[in-house]
Amino acid sequence: MSSVLYDVAGPRARRRTMLWSIVGALFVLGLLYLAYRQLDERGQWDPERWQIFTDPPMGQTAEDVWSSLLIDGLGATLRAAGIAAAIALALGLVLAVLRMSASRLVRWPVTTVIEFFRGLPVVLLMFFGVIAMGLPIFWGVVFGLVVYNSAIIAEILRAGIVSLPIGQSEAAYAVGLGRWQALFTVLLPQAVRRMLPSLVSQLVVLLKDTSLGFIIGYAELLRRLQLNTQFFGQRYWFQFFVVGAAIYITVNFTLSRLAVYLERRGTKKAAGGVAKAGEAVGGKVGGGAADGATAI
Question: Can you list the domains of the chain with their CATH numbers?
Answer without folding.
Answer: 67-287 (1.10.3720.10)
